[in-house]
């Protein structure tokens, strides 16, 4: 993997590649953005570019340094992640010891910190001191969902590199080219923030099963409550799909949005385009306002689910509420 082959994230590429070309690499970078946007893969690619023996502003993916980083055994590249719920001060101290040893060739060391916002206060303060007074030429890559959750003093000493959700159409094209089923891909790219997450979702058997069950429920829930309740009980809550009840509401949200798009004559925006015949029959069973209301109901049900209310109870109440759109 190289910058050239990474999909999207053009602003992030511009920031780090400019530093590589100008030989003005910052001592610390804050990779901030939602899960699924490829921050970790980008960080690894950046590390390879810093050590690559052939290219200046990218990685060749074939030299010894690139291959060592890919296999996780480059002596001057270190990865640190939370132990349990947090990154602890002992981990930072251990990292500092590792970085104090002599480097192999370039004189530079790199460390990648996953979920950097999970540092304890003591760990963050220890890291801050290390950022201010590194024992050797070091590049820190701090990965976080929310850069603003970091200590202001760490933010001020780091180069912010923003990561944004990738465009669904861009991900759709790539994943279809890779051979994944179009219907599955079209759904997955509207549930994730990046290509890797979309690919992983398409590879999960449970995701295809959950989509099929949602379609069955979607066809019955507006008119046949008893049938819908039975399907939910037997095909979701008595199976392993119960673990993915949260995503079931995400799928329903997309399904209801398709109803609105059909009413608005925006068929080219349909996510479940393979179900257009069914959508054409169901879309007009509710008014636009009622479809908006059931979308809100799905969001509210999802909030209750995340507040640890019994999943089956939440879903059954949601289905009952669907009957009149009220």
From TrEMBL:
<dbReference type="InterPro" id="IPR015199">
    <property type="entry name" value="DNA_pol_III_delta_C"/>
</dbReference>
<keyword id="KW-0235">DNA replication</keyword>
<dbReference type="InterPro" id="IPR027417">
    <property type="entry name" value="P-loop_NTPase"/>
</dbReference>
<dbReference type="InterPro" id="IPR004622">
    <property type="entry name" value="DNA_pol_HolB"/>
</dbReference>
<dbReference type="GO" id="GO:0003677">
    <property type="term" value="F:DNA binding"/>
</dbReference>
<dbReference type="GO" id="GO:0008408">
    <property type="term" value="F:3'-5' exonuclease activity"/>
</dbReference>
<dbReference type="Pfam" id="PF09115">
    <property type="entry name" value="DNApol3-delta_C"/>
</dbReference>
<dbReference type="GO" id="GO:0009360">
    <property type="term" value="C:DNA polymerase III complex"/>
</dbReference>
<keyword id="KW-0808">Transferase</keyword>
<dbReference type="GO" id="GO:0003887">
    <property type="term" value="F:DNA-directed DNA polymerase activity"/>
</dbReference>
<dbReference type="InterPro" id="IPR050238">
    <property type="entry name" value="DNA_Rep/Repair_Clamp_Loader"/>
</dbReference>
<keyword id="KW-0548">Nucleotidyltransferase</keyword>
<dbReference type="GO" id="GO:0006261">
    <property type="term" value="P:DNA-templated DNA replication"/>
</dbReference>
<dbReference type="Pfam" id="PF13177">
    <property type="entry name" value="DNA_pol3_delta2"/>
</dbReference>
<protein>
    <recommendedName>
        <fullName>DNA polymerase III subunit delta'</fullName>
        <ecNumber>2.7.7.7</ecNumber>
    </recommendedName>
</protein>
<feature type="domain" description="DNA polymerase III delta subunit C-terminal">
    <location>
        <begin position="242"/>
        <end position="321"/>
    </location>
</feature>
<keyword id="KW-0239">DNA-directed DNA polymerase</keyword>
